[in-house]
Amino acid sequence: MEKVNVQLGAAHQGSEATLSRAEDFKEKGNDALKAFKFPLAVEMYTTAISLIPTAIYYSNRAAAHIKMESYGLALEDASESIKIDPSYIKAYYRRASANLPLGHLKDALRDYRTVVKMKPTSAEAKSKMKLCEQLIRQAAFAEAIQSERHRPLSETIDVSAMVVDSSYDGPHLPETPPSTEFITDVLDHFKRGKLLHRKYVLQILLSMKSMLQALPSLLRIPLGSDAQAHITVCGDTHGQFYDVCNIFALNGLPSETNPYLFNGDFVDRGSFSLEVVLTLFVMKLAFPGHVHLLRGNHESKNMNKIYGFEGEVKHKYDDVVMNLFSEVFNWLPLAACIESKVLVVHGGLFHQDNVTLADIEKIDRNREPPESGIDCPFYTNWILFTLIVSHTNSTLNGCCFRIG
User: Fold this and answer.
1) Other beta carbons less than 10 A from residue 219's beta carbon
2) What is the Cα–Cα distance from 74 to 13, expressed in whole angstroms?
3) pLDDT tens digits for 212-263?
4) What pLDDT, in 10s, does the model give residues 321-373?
5) Does 26 have pLDDT greater than 60?
6) Could you tell me what reaction this enzyme catalyses (predicted)?
7) How high does pLDDT run on average in the chain?
8) Cβ(339)–Cβ(220) under 8 Å?
9) Can you spell out the DSSP letters for 89-114?
10) Strand order in the sheet with 291-294
11) Among residues 53, 81, 144, 207, which one has the fewest Cβ atoms lying within 10 Å of its Cβ?
12) DSSP 3-state assignment of 42?
């Protein structure tokens, strides 16, 4: 093996044999990362770190954590990498890449600027730096006009004057609630790579907003006394339309006897986010008491800008449709309690043990998620952050807390 120069912590000088073993595990981690086997990559980098903790190994593990959206862990690893070797440029880039989706825009911008200063030719770092600057300006502008009274977009749109052109060959939205037949027609239309008419999309979104506004922040879902009563709970779908279709092929379409709960993150990353979320919305309109939708951290403006949904909607439709989606996302419920026994949330559990279901129920959810739980000025904002976002900011996996 070619000799590799690595920067070590002062207390971690290793033998040539140990370094060689660590490099082998690092290469296995790199191979796993390229093969999209992210948990395996984390395992390999962790083994390398246990042998010799270097800036490169920590930074590589941060990259794997970012791929898994474990941004809190990525922040820790990238910061440790910088601590070991303050000149290691990739660590700054990866720390910025973890801060950006968490909404820590100023922290991300600071590290992107460091990368650009250290490597002025990096077009990718310059692009991310400009994105951060743009998001910060937009946030400042939104804050400046927040106190101004203005009518929501949903109250200014008039779809009655919109005409569906005769060349449109897709399903037509009925005036009555959608039927199972309409759902099937929509799925088939999407499978052929076609879109719903813009008028119908706007009508679906307006109907969804009206329906969601009437719901509490915490859904209470009874299953009934029937021995066959059940509900199917689905996690992140992230724009994977054909995976969603496969769920219904295996488990059946929603109905009064086959209810579903989708636990957020319908959009972003996948190329068919629009098709996924519209499918779920049509199903919700068809079976309002048997299709339940919760909000995830990707049902938010910042995440949609970064991870693709905004670009997809603007490409397939326009700004108006995207802005209306943002309105609807703000009204998605935050949690569900099934049969008074099972609590379902997208983000995670609370670090305080005094949060009640009543606290969740009374949250004013019509807002963008806070940037962090620690910085939330209001108790209800802290709960909102935990319910939607905290799984991406945790330094632990699963339902657990660190003690000591």
Assistant:
1) 19
2) 24
3) 999 999 999 999 888 889 999 999 999 999 999 999 999 999 999 999 999 9
4) 999 999 999 999 999 999 999 999 988 777 677 888 888 888 888 988 765 44
5) yes
6) O-phospho-L-threonyl-[protein] + H2O = L-threonyl-[protein] + phosphate
7) 86
8) no
9) HHHHHHHHHHHTTTT-HHHHHHHHHH
10) 232-234, 260-263, 291-294
11) 144
12) helix
299 and 265 Cβ atoms separated by less than 8 Å: yes
AA identity, residue 184? T
User: So what's the pLDDT on residue 126?
Assistant: 94
Strands 342-345, 335-338: parallel, antiparallel or unpaired by DSSP?
antiparallel
pLDDT of 375 above 50? no
Contact 291, 260 (CB under 8 A): yes
Name 8's bridge partners. Answer: 54
Q: Give the pLDDT confidence of 379-401 residue by residue, as tens digits.
A: 445 456 566 665 554 444 433 33
Residue where the block lists tokens 């603007």: 314
Query: How many C-beta atoms lie closer than 10 Å to residue 402's C-beta?
Result: 7
What per-residue confidence (pLDDT) applies to 377? Answer: 36
Phi, psi of 73, rounded to the nearest 5 degrees: -65, -40
81 contacts 88 by C-beta, under 8 angstroms? yes
CATH for the 16-145 domain, from 1.25.40.10, 3.90.25.10, 3.30.1330.60, 3.90.850.10: 1.25.40.10
Bridge partners, 354 (sequence order): none
Name 165's bridge partners: none
Residue 236 half-sphere exposure, CB side, CA atoms within 13 Å? 16
For residue 91, give the nearest of 107, 75, 110 by alpha carbon: 75
User: Which residues does the annotation mark as catalytic?
Assistant: 298
**What are the two backbone dihedrals, phi and then psi, of residue 271, each rounded to the nearest 5 degrees?**
-85, -10
Domain boundaries, the chain: 16-145, 156-392
pLDDT, residue 384, reads: 60
Long-range contacts of 114-123 (CB under 8 A, 24+ apart): 115/89, 118/87, 118/89, 118/92, 119/89
pLDDT in tens, 56-99: 999 999 999 999 888 888 999 999 999 999 999 999 999 999 99
- CB-based burial label for 320 (10 Å; 0-12, 13-18, 19+): middle
- What is the CATH architecture assignment of 156-392? 4-Layer Sandwich (3.60)
